[in-house]
Amino acid sequence: MSEMPSRVIPIDPARPDANALRTAAEVVHAGGLVAFPTETVYGLGANALDVDAVRRIFEAKGRPPVNPLIVHVHGESMLRQVVADWPPTAATLAARFWPGPLTLVLLKGESVADLVTAGGSTIAVRTPGHPIALALIREAGVPLAAPSANRSGEISPTRAEHVLAGLAGRIDLILDGGPTLNGIESTVLDLTTEPPTLLRPGPVGIAELEAILGPIQKQPKAAGRALASPGMMPRHYAPRTPVELIGGRANFDERANVLRSRGENFGEVVLGETDCQERRIGMPANPAGYAACLYDVLHRLDGLGLSRILVELPPATDDWMAVRDRLTRAAAD
Ligand code: TXA
Ligand code: MG
User: Fold this and answer.
1) CB count, 10 Å around CB of 267?
2) Positive or negative: CA dihedral 219, 114, 57, 126
3) Domain count, the chain
4) How large a percentage of the chain has pLDDT more than 90?
């Protein structure tokens, strides 16, 4: 694809500038690509009803066409444009969690091109809980197809600088609204199965979903559902530097000593320390705090030319599920 200058416009989430939003909406109307902050990670947005614009998303990301996109909507009429069906459970979940980091997989509406959903009959939708994302959708007046604004398979961006590092010259515009809040991608829940299936753990936890829905399936059924959610592919959200996960501080320290005695230049990510050095990062001991800075830490360590990144794995409890999921993918071969 041809090089284009990627313009960056700083924008204040507390008071999104009308001119900046108008400029971004014009890019969307012209079939271009705009990266914008959401409460989870930065999205790479295009008019979901413009198939050429959607094709540009796949090209800019190097995303395989078998991996469907999330469509971001604001308001009931826009929602109805993209889904064929709006079951009561969807309405209940949306009332509780939207705007917010929950993506629902539903039957796709006819006006949505097959490219958006990778040829499938279902569509992933959400209303993002971020003032800039909401204002942009409203200003553009069209649903925005927006995957995370990174090259396919790489770490998702939680800052405009991360977007630039991966996609400069491949997209038209970046709205820089500062770091994102949640730091990891939305929870993806498939409502077309009975019971519903968790396709990707995220900021909205299993307990919160099950309180409303009763028991849900935690793994897509393996047989025949290999592409149920390609984002569930083992290696995803990965830095270039190899990542090694170690459970338990004693094991971690032992491994670090071995690597040190070999003279390896490695990075360390440990739990529950506030002290941060360049190559040894202390992470918050709570899941939300950890998730908020995880990708930023990985982006930073990945830029240091280290032999590997040693990560102390958080506990195997439900509240850490989303963080452990992303760490496991980052470490997969
Ligand atoms: O937080 C997020 O969800 C961010 C922000 C920008 O909204 N977006 C995001 O998009 O993470 P992306 O494209 O990087 O991840 C979308 C995930 C992928 O795992 C994809 O396979 C899955 O959602 N997905 C999309 N459409 C689907 C569908 N129809 N059925 C099942 N999975 C779907
Ligand atoms: Mg992604």
Assistant:
1) 24
2) negative
3) 2
4) 89
- CA-CA distances (angstroms) from residue 131 to 32, 44, 91, 137, 177? 21, 16, 22, 10, 10
* Cα 42 from Cα 25, distance rounded (Å): 17
Does position 229 have pLDDT exceeding 80, yes or no?
no
| Preceding peptide of 143 cis, ω within 30° | no
Choose one of 167, 184, 229, 235 to mutate for the ligand 1 pocket test, by most ligand atoms within 8 angstroms of C-beta: 229
Asked if 251 and 198 sit in the same domain, the reply is no
Ligand closest in space to the Cα of 188 = 1
Q: Ligand 1 centroid vs 64 CA: distance in angstroms?
A: 13
pLDDT of residue 100 exceeding 50, the answer is yes
Q: What is the pLDDT of residue 3?
A: 61
The pair of structure tokens assigned to 43 is: 């999205």
pTM strictly above 0.90: yes
**Residue-range definition of the domain harbouring residue 206:** 7-218
139 domain residue, yes or no: yes
Residues 145 and 208 in one domain: yes
Look-up: residue for tokens 């959401």? 38
Residues near 219 by Cβ (< 8 Å), separated by ≥ 6? Answer: 197, 198
Q: Residues 6 or more apart from 278 whose CB is under 8 A from it? A: 304
Render pLDDT for 59-93 as a digit per residue (tens, 0 to 9). 999 999 999 999 999 999 999 999 999 999 999 99
Instruction: Report how far ligand 2's centroid is from the alpha carbon of 256 (Å).
Output: 31
Burial 168-178 (b: 16+ CB within 10 A, else e): eebbbbbbbbe
Is residue 158 lining ligand 1, measured as CB closer than 6 Å?
Answer: no
47 lines ligand 1 (CB under 6 A): no
Mean pLDDT of the chain: 94
| 116 phi-psi bin (left φ>0, alpha ψ -120 to 50, beta other) | alpha
